[in-house]
Amino acid sequence: MLAGIRQFFAERSVLEVETPLLGHSIGTDPQLEFFITEYCLSPGMVCMPQAGREPARQSPLRQTLFLQTSPEFAMKRLLAAGSGSIYQIGKAFRNGESGRFHNPEFTMLEWYRVGFTLPQLMDEIAELIAGLFSGQSLQKTQRVSYQDIFCSFTGLDPLVFSYQDYCAFAGDSGLSEAVDICGHDHAVWLDFIFSHKVQPHLGDNALCMVYGYPACQSSLARINEQCALTTDRVELFINGIELGNGYYELADAEEQSRRFDKELAIRQQHQLPVFVKDKRLISALESGLPECSGVAIGLDRLLMLLSGSVSIDDVLSFPIHRA
Known about the structure:
This protein is 33% helix and 22% strand. The protein is an alpha+beta fold and 323 residues long.
């Protein structure tokens, strides 16, 4: 699988890069929990001496660092520095995630195509998946808007939040716990209902690409030019399993900063750990991110599907309980 992916990008002259697993900043997404560690510079460490002087001893240094949930921010800094189209295969880390489709340490493929619109990126995603599944007779790739698929399975309009309608649907669908879990948060309601009532039906032996996500759910994607209630975001599904998430990337530094502030406020409201937003990413956007689209795909889940496995543990040499 990895060889096939690397060949795919080599044929398209997309550069493979590597970015740090440890970073000084982390994302602000209220749905994610992070691994935090501490970097300690030993008191015994010394600075290089100047000519004719003894080495100068440094005072102890302690810095909070984070295991990255995605290489996205660092890769965007490379894009802003002029890297051109790039991809990466590497580890990512998300705390509190373990189960049939989750391991706290997992392998991610992420790539960015300079000059690509989201539909062009979706074409390339379909080509990659078709190549990897060659000989396994996947059905024709499906493309459907979030609004259409959500409405067809629930009868609800995902772009216009009605607390009463959502509560009524939850009660009628055996999801009464959603009222307490979701409260008046439109984005949380959408995540809850989508995962229970829509996602299981997506991509029956086929790649299903759902695009046009509601604006309240997309912190890093551009607002769609034709409909301000949606963003240029796509998610990938096969047999009800979510594989990836892609955007026509937001390049507006001020707007990105505002979205980070909003997510930090939500984290504070829900008494979640609050961190400083990634100022290096904002600075990179200010310097100029090229027009581009990007996507991240979980390779462990993809390997599950390619091998016909039922659990992510079946494709990991050492899942978390044996690490």
